[in-house]
Structures are given as structure tokens and as C-alpha cells.
Design a protein that fits this description.
Layout (H helix, E strand, L loop, with lengths): L10 H11 L9 E5 L2 E5 L1 H17 L7 E5 L4 H12 L3 E5 L5 H10 L4 E4 L2 H10 L8 E4 L10 E3 H14 L14 E7 L7 E6 H12 L9 E4 L6 H13 L3 E4 L6 H8 L3 E4 L1 H16 L3 H24 L4 H21 L6 E4 L6 H9 L4 E6 L6 E4 L18 E4 L4 E5 L6 E2 L3 H7 E2 L2 E10 L5 E6 L4 E2 L5 E2 L1 H9 L4 E7 L6 E7 L1 H11 L6 H5 L2 H15 L8 E6 L19 H7 L1 H17 L1
Parallel strand pairs: 1-11, 3-4, 3-5, 5-6, 6-7, 10-11, 12-13, 13-14, 25-26
Antiparallel strand pairs: 1-2, 8-9, 9-18, 14-15, 16-17, 17-20, 19-20, 20-21, 22-23, 24-25
Helix pairs in contact: 2-3, 2-6, 4-5, 7-8, 11-12, 11-13
């Protein structure tokens, strides 16, 4: 079926057409969330009423078209409700990551002059109250949870909906004619970036609507589909793919309880599509391998035979377009013995994983493909609403992000930078014309990514332009391919390669401590803490050996001469990761500056005597 209304021009138009389509169909629902340990659906009728009531409340409390209203919340039904209600009255929503500290929230709310903010709970309310005196424009705060005590100018969502309901009973015409045009700004999404202050990306209704339409023509969805949502809705990727796209096709969205419960929630929700990031696949692969390693030798043998059979099958299919009769037979057997059992862990109905937000290592993609699990890797930026490329279900090429979606034109600049044009390109950065001019030139959006297009039109990202390392010898090195090679080791959790204005490269590695502890206990290595573990000579030898192996695949100037083991993971909380899980290189190199200098000084002494 695809889109319920293929002609929508604005998001309120999309919402209205879907709600209208499902009037009277009580068995269909847009969202399900866990209540007392069981998934409970929220019907279209109930949800539409809530949206109207909340829209009326906001309008009645002075929120006018083009006013900014922030949403500071985890994924929950109230997030979708707030989004729809704000957009319905022509206001602009500003999503905020719930992990943000008060000072960053203050900067964003002041920068966009937010008039109101919808928060999820008392913890988020506490952050707003602590900075409210510095927010002259903020006059209204709504809490999704019940308010435990009265706070001036704060109301809970249930009270707000009740007030809106009363307004509509008295003035049924109150919500008519919200003037929303396709080129009006729908949302301002602040990208934290890996350096500097966040910039507000202005996305219009047209930007988002065109991107939803482009995606729907590639990933065919209908009301028999359902997704499992766990990526933050404050991120453009989950919002366009995991929310608007699913909603526009009548598919249901199940809300995962947390990252930790994903595997359990998959079995319960039995999703057909999941939008995710590459880190999840590392975790799933490790858990599969761990489970297999606890089984008897015969079962282990069968599993690895099935993986090899799957790899061979897809290699032949890609290269020749068909497979031999014998291989086809072996593949059918492997399906019965192994693939079906693994697919069952994901609920048994999964058609696709869609991967974005960071590069998917080719070997991970091929591992899942060998188990008959399709991962459609894509590419895009917040500034592009966000999807510009995605692998096609009928032809997946791991190591690439696929061809461009409909409406998007791509070209590669002379220096290798990927340039994009299309109706999905942002209006600009909020109150920052200079930054806008830097990235939109002659109608082309400059992505800051380096890439190449193959003969089939599939795009391969080779690095970030600003991550290119220029050594003191003047060599230009792309760190991403080197980091991907290092990451393939089961003993590596996170890695960044550095060497800017230095004579050679070194790597900062956060080990996979679970794997390392298993190794240590099997080898009789005594270590009470992570720090003690990474100081063990036997452990250091693992990474020495890894660097030597990797070096054989690299040019002389790309070799990683030394590494630094870090005993604590890079996270959003410690400021070493953006909320979209990208490593902040500058923050990491600043934090470990002394240790990095020490490694270089020791190496320089050796290097200079050679």
C-alpha cells in the first residue's frame, strides 16, 4: 500500500490524512508502549483526540504560529503527541536530547527564544527550573508525568489536555485554519557537532515531507509492518525513518523500554523493520558468538559451516547472478538448521534492519547477510532531513551507503567532497547566515564527507573532510579505514587514530573489557580493575600483535606505530561522544594530551635515532 496519502505537503496534512483514514478502525493503532510489563496499543482515535486537546491548550496559552516550543524527553507516547500538537498550530518544535546538561539546554532555549518546553519527568523539570531565571522568553512548562507538587507556570500533560478539551467544547472552531505552508520551518534540530557550539538546523515541512516520500518509494511499508523504536526521536534519523515514515504508511511503532531490553522487546513486538546504528550490530554479533561458544562442538561446527555457506552463497549471487545447485541445497539446509533459529530471536518477522548515523563495518554487514539478515545501510545528515542514500533491498552492497534516493542529486567535488542538492536540503542554520553560507554554495550542500561513486551509482564514504590527518611530513591520511580495521578485533570496543602535525600515527583504544576479562581469567592473569588489566604485559601483547597484523595492510605512512589503552569508555556522559554517538576527537585528544605527548616523545627518541 505504501503512503496512505501520497500528496501531503505539510506534516499536519500528513497527520490528518492518516487519522482520517483510520477513523472507526479500533483494531489498528499507531503506537504501543509497555504498561505493567505488557505492550498496550494506543488507538488512532484516542491519539487524535489527545493531539487536538493539547494543540488547543498550547494555542489558548499564547503559542502562535512560528513560536518555538522545545521537547525535552525520552522516547515515549508524549513525544509524538507533543510533536504533532506543536506542528498542528503552525509552531516550530525544538527537540532536545534528555542526556543534555542544564548549561547546554540553556544555550539552545535562549538561542531559539523558546516560549514553552514540554519535559518528560521531574528530573528534566529540575534542569529547566535551575536555569529558568536565565530564560527571559520561557513562559510555559508542561510535564508529561503527573506533577507531584504545584509549581508556578508548570502544568502536567493530563491537566493540559483537560484544559484543551474544555476550550474545544466551548469553541469548536478554535483550531481551524492553522496557517502552515510547505516552506515554513517545522523544526529546529541542534546538531552538537564534534567541536564548538551547537547549530540549529532549520528543516521545513517540505524538507521532511519530500524525504518521507523518497524513503517510502525504496522501503515499501504498509499497515502490516511494525517498527521497534529505541534511537532518540531528537535525532533526525529516527524521527524521519522510525516515526514519520512508519506513521505515514499506517505501520505501528512499538517503543522499546531501553537499550538494554532491545532483544527482549524484539521478541515481544516482532518488528518487521528496525532503524538502528552500527554499534547495535556489534553487540548482537557478540551475543550470538557468545551463545554459540557455550554449546557443544557439533553445534559450533554447524553454526560456522552455515556462516561460511551463507558467505559463499551471497558472493556467488553477487558475482554471477546465480548459484550452483549444490550450494543452493546447502544454503536451504543452513536455513533450516541455523538461520531460522537466529531470525526467531528477532521475533521471526524482521525484513530489514536500516543502519545509519555512522559507518557500518563491511565485515559486520557481510556476517549478518550470511545469516540471511538484511541490513540496509544508508547515509544522510541532519541538514538533509536526513536520508540522501540507502542500499536497495534488491541489491545490497556492504561497504557502500547505496545510491541516492529520489529527488537527491549528488556530485563529487575536485577534492573528493560529497555535494548534494534536493528539496530535502535545510533552509539554513538558525540565526547563523555565515555558517549557512559555508555549507550551501551555489545551491549545493557541502557535506564535509569524502567519497566516491561506483559504476552502479553506489556511494562509498571514505572519510570526514575535517578528520583528514595531515602529518608533519605533509602526508594526508584518512583515519576511518584504519579505525575500521582496528575495530574488527573482538578485543576493541572504541578507537580513534591521531597524528595531526605529528611524524606518524598512534591509536587510542578502549578495549572490550568483557572480552579482555574472559581472556585474562583463561590465561590466569590477575587484575582487579580495568586499569590493572591494561597494564598487564600479556594484555599489551594482544594489541601489539593486532597493530603488527594491521600494519601489513597499510602504506608506510598509514601504519599505526603505537597505541594507548584507555580504561574508561568514551561516552556522552563524560563528554567524549555526541548524543548521536559520534566520537568527539578534539575532546578526547585534549583529555589525554599529556599521555599522547608522552607516547610521541618516547617514539620520537627512537624514530630520530633510526
Amino acid at each position: 500500500m505504501g503512503l496512505i496519502n501520497p500528496d501531503f505537503q505539510t506534516l499536519p496534512e500528513l497527520f490528518t490524512s492518516v487519522f482520517t483514514h483510520y477513523r472507526g478502525q479500533e483494531s489498528k493503532f499507531p503506537i504501543a508502549r509497555k504498561v505493567n510489563g505488557v505492550y498496550e496499543p494506543i488507538s488512532y482515535r484516542e491519539f487524535e483526540e489527545d493531539v487536538h486537546h493539547f494543540s488547543a491548550f498550547l494555542k489558548n496559552n499564547g503559542i502562535s504560529p512560528k513560536d518555538r516550543v522545545a521537547i525535552l524527553s525520552e522516547n515515549r507516547p508524549g513525544w509524538y503527541l507533543a510533536d504533532m500538537a506543536i506542528l498542528n498550530i503552525g509552531a516550530i518544535d525544538v527537540p532536545l536530547y534528555p542526556s543534555l546538561p542544564p548549561n547546554q539546554i540553556e544555550y539552545i532555549l535562549n538561542n531559539c527564544s523558546a516560549k514553552a518546553v514540554v519535559v518528560s519527568n521531574m528530573l528534566q523539570l529540575g534542569k529547566i527550573i535551575s536555569i529558568w531565571q536565565n530564560l527571559p522568553e520561557l513562559c510555559l512548562v508542561i510535564v508529561m508525568n503527573r506533577l507531584e507538587e504545584n509549581v508556578e507556570d508548570v502544568i502536567d500533560l493530563n491537566q493540559a489536555k483537560e484544559e484543551g478539551k474544555r476550550v474545544l467544547e466551548e469553541k469548536p472552531w478554535f483550531l481551524e485554519a492553522a496557517p502552515v505552508e510547505p516552506d515554513d520551518v517545522a523544526t529546529i534540530i541542534y546538531t552538537s557537532g564534534t567541536t564548538g557550539l551547537p547549530k540549529g538546523v532549520m528543516l521545513t515541512h517540505r524538507n521532511l515531507c519530500e524525504n518521507i516520500k523518497s524513503c517510502s518509494s525504496i522501503i515499501r511499508l504498509d499497515e502490516s509492518d511494525c517498527g521497534l523504536s529505541f534511537l532518540p526521536l531528537s535525532h533526525a534519523y529516527e524521527r524521519t525513518g522510525g516515526y514519520y515514515l512508519l506513521f505515514s504508511c499506517g505501520a505501528s511503532i512499538y517503543l522499546a523500554e531501553s537499550i538494554e531490553t532491545i532483544s527482549m522487546n524484539m521478541a515481544e513486538a516482532r518488528p518487521t523493520i528496525i532503524f538502528t546504528v552500527p554499534r547495535l550490530f556489534d553487540r548482537i554479533k557478540m551475543s550470538i558468538i557468545k551463545q554459540i561458544s557455550s554449546q557443544n562442538a557439533i553445534k559450533q561446527k554447524i553454526f560456522y559451516w552455515a556462516v561460511q555457506t551463507g558467505e559463499k552463497y551471497h558472493r556467488q549471487l553477487n558475482e554471477k547472478g546465480r548459484v550452483t545447485a549444490l550450494l543452493s541445497l546447502q544454503h536451504t539446509l543452513a536455513e533450516k538448521l541455523v538461520y531460522e533459529k537466529i531470525k526467531h530471536k528477532f521475533g521471526g518477522r524482521l525484513r530489514y534492519f536500516v543502519s545509519g548515523g555512522a559507518a557500518l563495518p563491511q565485515k559486520i554487514g557481510e556476517f549478518f547477510q550470511a545469516l540471511e539478515i538484511s541490513i540496509l545501510e544508508g547515509f544522510g545528515l541532519t541538514e538533509t532531513s536526513p536520508v540522501t542514500h540507502v542500499n536497495r533491498p534488491e541489491k545490497i552492497k556492504y561497504g557502500t551507503v547505496g545510491p541516492a534516493v529520489n529527488n537527491v542529486t549528488v556530485k563529487i567535488a575536485e577534492d573528493g567532497e560529497i555535494l548534494l542538492k534536493g528539496p530535502n536540503i535545510m533552509k539554513g542554520y538558525w540565526k547563523d547566515e555565515e555558517a549557512t553560507r559555508e555549507v550551501i554554495r551555489d545551491g549545493w550542500f557541502c557535506t564535509g564527507d569524502i567519497g566516491e561513486i561506483d559504476k552502479d551509482g553506489y556511494l562509498k564514504i571514505t572519510d570526514r573532510k575535517k578528520h583528514i590527518i595531515v602529518t608533519s611530513g605533509g602526508k594526508n591520511i584518512a583515519p576511518l579505514p584504519i579505525e575500521n580495521l582496528i575495530s574488527e578485533s573482538p578485543f576493541v570496543d572504541q578507537v580513534i587514530v591521531i597524528g595531526e602535525k605529528r611524524p606518524f600515527l598512534i591509536a587510542l583504544i578502549v578495549p572490550d573489557f568483557e572480552k579482555l576479562m574472559e581472556y585474562a581469567s583463561s590465561e590466569g592473569i590477575q587484575a582487579a580493575t580495568n586499569k590493572e588489566l591494561i597494564e598487564s604485559k600479556s594484555v599489551i601483547q594482544i594489541y601489539d600483535k593486532l597493530m603488527r597484523t594491521i600494519s601489513r595492510q597499510l602504506a608506510t605512512h598509514e601504519k599505526v606505530r603505537k597505541f594507548l589503552l584507555i580504561d574508561d569508555a568514551f561516552t556522552v556522559e563524560n563528554g567524549h561522544m555526541t548524543p548521536t554517538l559520534k566520537l568527539k576527537r578534539k575532546a578526547i585528544t585534549t583529555k589525554f594530551a599529556a599521555e599522547i605527548d608522552k607516547v610521541y616523545n618516547a617514539l620520537n627518541a627512537v624514530y630520530n635515532t633510526e
